[in-house]
Amino acid sequence: MNWDDTAPSTDDAVPAGPDRLVGADADGEDTAVEAALRPKDLQEFVGQERVREQLDLVLRAARARGATADHVLLSGAPGLGKTTLSMIIAAEMGAPIRITSGPAIQHAGDLAAILSSLQEGEVLFLDEIHRMSRPAEEMLYMAMEDFRVDVIVGKGPGATAIPLELPPFTLVGATTRAGLLPPPLRDRFGFTAHMEFYAPEELQRVIHRSAGLLDVEIEPDGAAEIAGRSRGTPRIANRLLRRVRDYAQVKADGVITREIASQALGVYEVDARGLDRLDRAVLTALLKLFGGGPVGLSTLAVAVGEERETVEEVAEPFLVREGLLARTPRGRIATPAAWAHLDMVPPQHQAGGIGQQGLFGA
Ligand SMILES: Nc1ncnc2c1ncn2[C@@H]1O[C@H](COP(=O)(O)OP(=O)(O)OP(=O)(O)O)[C@@H](O)[C@H]1O
Ligand SMILES: [Mg+2]
After folding, report:
1. Does residue 299 have an active-site annotation?
2. The domain 38-194 is classified under which CATH number: 3.40.50.740, 3.40.50.720, 3.40.50.300, 3.10.25.10?
3. Which member of 86, 89, 177, 355 lies 3.0 to 4.6 Å from 125 by CB, making a disulfide possible if both were Cys?
4. Do residues 12 and 309 lie in contact, with contact meaning Cβ atoms separated by under 8 Å?
5. Catalytic one among 20, 30, 68, 83?
6. What is the pTM of this model?
7. C-alpha distance from residue 187 to each of 48, 73, 82, 121, 192 (Å)
């Protein structure tokens, strides 16, 4: 559902497939176990070295001054640890945290109610801040800068603005789409942290840590195998770990070895690079039916029997990130890495074969 007509957001309408094992958004089971797996302080938080170091300085300095920490904006793809980091900020400051999200704030009044009930030093976590309504956003500007809001009482010519002082608080905003934030809002954050995808070694550490908390025995090779298929995302790493654990318990003695991890993820159709069935269907169609492209998005979508949006928003971002597919003005094309990944030979390399763009070019 689209709560907010100011943002040209399409992410809400996309069939992101909560049943998708490699989807980066949280599903029901994730929500239930994530609380247990969340690192509780900066020390425990794996990776994101730069962000961690900078945030550590910001928080230490604020603590030393006995002041409330500056507002923090966390941006990055789903499942990289924004919510986790917001809770860590509160914990490190020894402050309570209030959690809400852009879509939950439909009216400025909703925000005024939250702001006016904050305690001094409290952390207000505003998830999906890019989806807040415009009037609420404007109220937030003043609250962030001057710790003050104007509450409008009454309607029409008789309406009056009653200024309300707020206690100093720390706003932690999170967004998957930093580009959608209006500059005046972005500028009011004292510190902006951009979260990157995790390296396989970092994910391996995340997996080890989670396995410990879930009381699962895992060999380093087993963790490496899962890490390599987790698309740079801790949430996916934790989810794959749980599925591999199931397999290890049912089919083996419960210990996760490389062999077991590889077999289990084969059963769940997550390949060595983290592609799932949909991703591979798109690539396979692109290579087999269209000789590697270029081919239009709609044609490609019909070929795999999916909606355009599903191909564009669900499968393509990761394929592009992995350098397997490129979006060009003339259509989608496969990269040499795509041919290699599916163990296929590009047509121009075959004796007497047609050129890559021979049949379907333009
Ligand atoms: N650096 C990390 N170290 C260990 N675990 C992590 C780290 N980052 C994230 N996780 C784990 O990944 C899961 C997802 O993290 P989190 O909910 O913070 O992501 P998010 O960025 O808020 O995602 P979304 O955009 O969907 O809200 C949590 O279970 C958390 O424990
Ligand atoms: Mg979150």
Report:
1. no
2. 3.40.50.300
3. 86
4. no
5. 83
6. 0.88
7. 23, 10, 19, 21, 9
Taking the C-alpha atoms of residue 174 and residue 81, their distance in angstroms, rounded to an integer, is 10
- Helices within 23-81 (DSSP H only): 28-37, 49-65
**DSSP string of 156-191, one letter each residue:** GGG-EEEEEE----EEEEEES-GGGS-HHHHHT-SE
94 burial class (0-12, 13-18, 19+ CB within 10 angstroms)? exposed
Ligand with an atom nearest the CA of residue 34: 1
**Of how many residues is the chain composed?**
362
Instruction: Identify residues whose C-beta is under 5 A from ligand 2, the ion.
Output: 82-83
Q: Report, in angstroms and rounded to the nearest whole number, the Rg of the chain calculated over CA atoms.
A: 24
Residue 335, annotated as binding a ligand: no
What CATH fold (topology level) applies to the domain 200-267? Helicase, Ruva Protein; domain 3 (1.10.8)
> What does the pLDDT look like over 303-339, one tens digit per residue?
999 999 999 999 999 999 999 999 999 999 999 999 9
Residue 288 among the catalytic residues: no
Distance CA 152, CA 173 (A): 25
Q: Which of the 8 DSSP states describes residue 295?
A: B
CA distance linking residue 203 with residue 220, whole number of Å = 12
pLDDT tens digits for 131-167? 999 999 999 999 999 999 988 888 888 889 889 999 9
Q: Is 160 annotated in the active site?
A: no
Q: What is the DSSP letter of 150?
A: E
Residue 170: strand pairing partners = 123
CATH topology of domain 277-349: Arc Repressor Mutant, subunit A (1.10.10)
Contact 149, 112 (CB under 8 A): yes
Q: Which residues pair with 333 in a beta bridge?
A: 326
What SS3 state is found at 71? coil
119 Rama sector, left if φ>0, alpha if ψ -120 to 50, beta otherwise: beta
